[in-house]
Amino acid sequence: MEQDNSHLLNMFETFHCQHCSNVYNDKHNYRKHLCESHGHLMPFCCKICGKGSFSRQNLIFHMQGHEGRTFVCPVSNCSAKFKLKHHLMRHVRTLHSLHQCSKCLSVFRESHIFIGHLSTCKNTSV
After folding, report:
1. Cβ neighbours of residue 100 closer than 8 Å, sequence gap 6 or more
2. Which terminus of the chain has a lower count of CB atoms within 10 Å, N or C?
3. Taking Cα atoms as reference points, which of 53, 37, 42 lies closest to residue 90?
């Protein structure tokens, strides 16, 4: 009697991002990566933060979350706003390829300057 192992194929399926070198072991994380890192290439894209969506309904739901945002992107010509600090930091890192201090929210282009700043930053007010 032959055993059907076709259900195991999906366990080892990998998802390669066609826009960068990232590889994912599951479809959920791959789609999350696409929406967060390559939102401008998605069928629907948030004009506030750049996050992409596969459907108009998901974009509408996402847009409702922008109300009452307090963390503003420090990059000039970017009007993205976020309710949570770590969402702002992810946005700055993925969309603008910059490093942001979690204490004072200063932004750095070069990683060695950012690392030096981290050892001296004393700001805890954010």
Report:
1. 74, 88, 89, 92, 93, 106, 107, 108
2. N
3. 37
